[in-house]
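Hi P.,

Sorry for the delay on this. The queue was packed all week, but I finally got your sequence through. Input first:
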Amino acid sequence: MRDVVIVDYLRTPFSRSRPNAPEKDKLNDFRMDVLAGRLIKTMVERKGINPKEIGDVLVGAAFQVMEQWLYGGRGIVALAELPETVTAQAIDRQCGSSMNTIHTGVMQIMTGNSDIVVSAGLEHMTHIPMAGNPYIDPPTAQLMEPAYEKYDFATGFVMGLTAEKLFKRAAEKFGVTREDMDRYSLESHEFAAKGQDEGFFKDEILPIELADGEIYDYDAGVRRGSTMEKMASLMPSFDFEGEITPGNSSPLNAGATAMVLMSKEKAKEYGLEPLATIKSMGWAAVNPGIMGLGPVPASQIALKKAGLEAKDIAFWEINEAFAIV
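Then the structure:
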């Protein structure tokens, strides 16, 4: 197996999506496939990559309908102004869609099927919302039949309810409280604000010029000036008797991301300094009703493949969609 390295990554700023007030979304005037193409074009040019050497462009999105219908990823190839001979895929693993493009790209390079792969992801939750979207129509009636009860789709189809269920388990097993979740969320926003102030995200964000001339280059979902008192005052969002609120849940966002993966040999050939080496990957499934538990077995699989244990990892990063995760 060949070593796989990350040589570049870039993203748009992430706006706050407002399906009911689209004019308040900083990126309301943009399609995310167009911006994803811009990200890829920028990286290919600044790293001096011969676009004909790109083995695949992989694009992830959870809701591939309307403007997020990705034409199998080929639309992004054109928007990035890559040669028509560059192949593409569109990938959907729901919340993990863009991460899965990295998994697939890494496997292509490890096995020698590609030397260079571009991974990308996008979502515009103002234009393509989850709630009330007529283009999202799971077979609810069938999945509510007794034969499927063990999968708990009644909970699994609503992410907030899965968080409520996971919270109850954590409260019983570990004594986790609403206050714990609120504090974790508050600290997350405080860290993000500190990172913005110190320019931590500057190099990874491609500034976007808005219609009014503003150069938009920051994540709008960071809530400054919040307090534990404000967090405690928020009402539950999914269960009137629950503990999951707007404060300890994920925001709705619009944005696009992209990353260039290479074999270690190809990066050396280009004279590019790797930003990181991908040692292993893991994915796992749990009951849909407690989907937030998924990172635990997935991490265990990745650790085992790498010959590591949790104690060997000095720094962990995990998606903070819900504080209870």
